[in-house]
Amino acid sequence: MKNKVQMEQAAVKRKKVIVPFLIGLLLLSSIVFIKHLMNRMNSYIEKNGKMCMGAVVEQMQQTYELQTNGYYSQLHLVEGYLLQKKELSLETEENRIFFDAWERESESTLLFLQENGKAITADGTKMRIDIPSKLLLDLRNGHNIAKLVAWNHEEIQNGAYLVAISCQPYRIDGKTYTAIGTAYNHAKLDSMLKLKGYHGNAYLFLLDNEGNITYTNQSKDVFFRNYSLLKHLRKSQAITEGEAETLQKRLAAREQGVELLGGKSPYYLGYCPIESNHSMLICIVAKGVVDNTLTEYQKAVSFTTMFMVGFILLLFAGLFYSVSRLSIADQKAKYEKRNNELQIQAMKELEASNQNLKEAKNIATEALQTAENANKAKTDFLSNVSHDIRTPMNAIVGITALIRHNAGDKVKVLEYVDKIDISAQHLLGIINNVLDMSKIEAGKTAFQYTDFSISDLLQDLNAMFHSQVEEKNQTLTITKEKIRHEWVNGDQVHLMQIFSNLLSNAVKYTQEGGAIHFVAEECETASTVYARYRFFVRDNGMGMSDAFKDTIFDAFTRAENSVTNKIQGTGLGMAITRNLVEAMGGTIYVESKPGQGSCFEVLIDLKIAKERPAFLSSKEEETPSGAILEGMHFLCAEDNELNAEILTELLKMKGAECTICENGQKVVETFEQSVPGAYDMILMDVQMPVMNGYDAARAIRRSLHKQAGTIPIIAMTANAFSEDIRHSLTAGMNAHISKPVDMMLLEKTIRSIKSGGGSETQADKE
After folding, report:
1. CATH number of the domain at 18-325, please?
2. pLDDT digits (tens, 9 = 90+) for 29-67
3. Under 8 Å CB-to-CB from 407, ≥6 apart: which residues?
4. What is the CATH number of domain 622-765?
5. Integer Cα distance of 739 and 664 in angstroms
6. Residues 6 or more apart in contact with residue 131 via CB below 8 angstroms
7. Do residues 638 and 627 touch, judged by C-beta distance below 8 A?
8. Domain 326-444's class?
9. What is the C-alpha separation between 14 and 336, in angstroms, rounded?
10. Cis peptide leading into 740, omega within 30 of 0?
11. What is the pTM of this model?
């Protein structure tokens, strides 16, 4: 009996020890769990805070780029007008009307800038703009700038946002200017970049490549001037030296990202490059502002977790109390019931997980299919390009062998040479298409606006396709209807490319003896500044199916049938055409039926230009073909020996002489040492050792030689894009011709320069 009582007492003592131990262990585990959960929540908040900031910064970057690129495009329109005029007066009614219309449309003040920061407005008001010397140097080096500045206008000290571009020197009222800018109230930019989601607690900055502030949404004077942002953050102890050094390296490398800085007063700093003017966008928001929503969620989760832990503790205590008083059989029954409930719940959760897994699998399958389609498109494109390149190359190699074999037969040799020329032109077209598409997809297509005649445009098209149409015994009819404004301002180069692609397709896909029509028509419009033109390219060729018609403007797309497979092409021409039309604000449509031909329609607005006398369009006819070069002496920059030899022989064939220099520095030295009149013109390569063509042209224009400002300089380079042409003209050159050199185009360009007309480019031919 005594032993039984002792055993019961020992059991009670064990319970008194075990129960507190188990409760304490559960409590400790709960504390560890809560701490781990809070750490995970903090990490989640920080990660998502950075993601939110990254998205905000990217949105601000896109908004800013859209605004400033619009101003840069408008300034390039003014640039084209100024370069056409060369020298003008603000008192002239024509100039006053143009500048007034420009300012009304852009809602900003037009400025003409000198290299020292002095400026004049379109109404003749002189002023000096507070531009740092660093940005003035950027302008002189051909870079776009954008800066919050102080300026004196109408005897009032104001703050404005200046957007400016460099350009070729021009003269206004006897003074030389080298840049064009527009200034508008920076409150407009503040309103556009306002971050409403952060209730005015976001700090926006734009920095130049040295970290100095060029714009801010803050009104404090310390930020209004040229001031280093990192210097300010260091001074206010908002960033450590290590953090500042790391951030400076990332800004210098023009990276994009978000950093959590500030130590005891943490804040997010987002950064993103601005490509249009080589600056960096910075956004600073206090961590608490960004994390506010997530923090409230964290508090709710923490409270719920602690409540659940307390509830579990109470449940455990009650359960332990009940277990000590219930029979083992009852406990087992309750345990099995609860276990069944948990199993049912686990099955439901498993089904939900399986459903989520299926959805994720479907998404992954779709992504894989998209990637496979893209890879197939790339593979097909490379296969087509490889085939299309090899075909003319095979012809060139094979015909070269035939020329060697029949060297004594002049008739056959000339016939073979014509075929080599056709194959080479086709090969060049393939390369140009691929390069054009890459520029379009990168968003780097630049437009050059000049005055031109609709009639001249149509004549060039007729001359370009005359021989191709005759080879296939086709007829090409080019007409114009209801043309009230003959002279317009636009990008003639890219318009020629658009219509050339459409006509080339019409010739390719129209049978021998077929008919092709090109119609230019002016539409009715209420505008007095712009005229609307509709261009039709219609043929009676093979046409196309509805399925292919829906994809004709997609890159790398070609119709697949027994007929079209024999026609060479990359599938890029129509994609390039659509992108160019839309970039110039126009639209393009196509109607087609198999076996009944196709009709392409281009609708586009062109700025109305001042009408010229009819004889100006036919100046080329004043000098006989080939005679324009006779007796001329050229100074040529060419570092490739073979190209130099070819150029020398081509010029000699036309009765001209040339002096070859292997780099830009040599050209400058030779020119400066020559007597006035020794050289009639300079042919300038661009990519050369020692000194490139742009720097050489600038050095010549700055030299003390009597012909420094008057001798014509023609860029002759493999750089064939529109921005390359603009860079050539900005550097002081008169015209731009792309390699391989077309002698007919060279003669045409020289004739135009001698007659005082505009410059020619390779794209005019293509």
Report:
1. 3.30.450.20
2. 666 655 665 666 566 666 777 887 788 888 888 888 877
3. 413
4. 3.40.50.2300
5. 18
6. 117, 145, 147, 149, 162
7. no
8. mainly alpha
9. 27
10. yes
11. 0.40
